[in-house]
């Protein structure tokens, strides 16, 4: 659980193949573990790495747009954390995306940590939904479907 005044952003990318039809998803919760918003969107045809990075960019953009400047970001892809944390340029096709993510992270006070897949089920579910939609979908706490709400509670049970 994040500290008072902080939010936690759990995010994930999903790809049906590498490359394949891809989606991004994430969930932002407050320090009481209450959902502020959840998002998912289609990313078209993309690779696993690109989907994880695009999901991170969308998540930090949504935090920034809502003046959520103290953000704890959790991802289940260790390679993404390593790529973001190092100031390396990364592969040429990722460079523009990495620059945008780092710019947003610079403007936010935050931390980036790894979470096991079992604790990231809500973001995983949302990313898979993103593979099947046409546009960005943003849900607030009242709009969450029962199944997502159950998964959010399960995430909290495994990793409070």
TrEMBL record:
Domain called RNase H type-1: residue spans: 3-132
Molecular function (Gene Ontology), one example: nucleic acid binding
Classification via SUPFAM superfamilies: Ribonuclease H-like
Top-rank taxon, per record: Eukaryota
InterPro entries linked to this entry: RNase_H-like (IPR053151), RNase_H-like_dom_plant (IPR044730), RNaseH-like_sf (IPR012337), RNaseH_domain (IPR002156), RNaseH_sf (IPR036397)
Pfam families associated with the record: RVT_3
Record-annotated membrane-spanning stretches: none
Protein name: Ribonuclease H protein
Organism, scientific name: Sesamum radiatum
Species classification: Eukaryota, Viridiplantae, Streptophyta, Embryophyta, Tracheophyta
């Amino acid at each position: 659980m994040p500290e008072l005044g902080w939010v936690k952003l759990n995010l994930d990318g999903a790809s049906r193949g590498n490359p394949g039809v891809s989606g991004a998803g994430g969930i932002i919760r407050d320090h009481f573990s209450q959902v502020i918003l959840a998002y998912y969107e289609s990313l078209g045809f993309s690779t696993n790495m690109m989907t994880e990075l695009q999901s991170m960019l969308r998540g930090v953009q949504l935090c920034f747009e809502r003046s959520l400047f103290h953000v704890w970001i959790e991802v289940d892809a260790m390679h993404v954390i390593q790529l973001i944390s190092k100031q390396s340029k990364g592969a040429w096709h990722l460079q523009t995306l990495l620059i945008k993510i780092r710019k947003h992270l610079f403007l936010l006070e935050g931390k980036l940590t790894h979470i096991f897949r079992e604790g990231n089920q809500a973001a995983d579910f949302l990313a898979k939904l993103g593979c099947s939609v046409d546009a960005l979908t943003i849900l607030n706490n009242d709009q969450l479907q029962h199944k997502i709400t159950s998964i959010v509670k399960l995430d909290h049970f495994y990793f409070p």
